Amino acid sequence: MELNYFRDRLFDLLNDSEGMGIADLNADERNSLLTVRTEEGNVFEIVCRQAAGKEDRRPQTDCL
């Protein structure tokens, strides 16, 4: 899974979520940052980045 795809899906999940009390959701694509403002006035920042050394490791299958 590519980072941009993951970030976009995370945005969609947060944007479509009911009951989390999200008042506003902004995406800063240049910095891979999601900013979430809740109905209570709290602001959270979510930084999306691929962890160093944690490449996409798909299980290998051997065909016999």
Q: In order across it, which strands form the biggest sheet?
A: 1-2-3
What separation lies between the terminal Cα atoms? Answer: 27 Å
User: Class by helix and strand content?
Assistant: alpha+beta
What fraction of residues sit in β-strands? 25-35%
Q: What Rg do the Cα atoms give?
A: 16 Å
Number of DSSP-assigned strands: 3
Low-confidence stretches: none
Average residue-wise pLDDT? 86
Task: Summarize the amount of helix as a percent range.
Answer: 10-25%
- Shape descriptor reads elongated
Main sheet? 3 strands, antiparallel
User: So how many helices?
Assistant: 1
- H-E string: HEEE
How many separate domains?
1
Task: Tell me what you see in this structure.
It is a single chain. The protein has one domain (3-47). Helix content is 22%, strand content 28%. The chain has one helix and three strands; from the N terminus they run αβββ. It has one helix at 3-16; strands spanning 22-28, 33-38, 43-47. It has a three-stranded antiparallel sheet with strand order 1-2-3, with helices on one face. The radius of gyration is 16 Å and the shape is elongated.
List the helices and strands and how they pair.
Blueprint: H1 3-16, E1 22-28, E2 33-38, E3 43-47
Short descriptors:
single chain; 28% strand; 64 residues; alpha+beta; three-stranded antiparallel beta sheet
How would you summarize this macromolecular structure in one to three sentences?
By secondary structure, this protein is of the alpha+beta class.
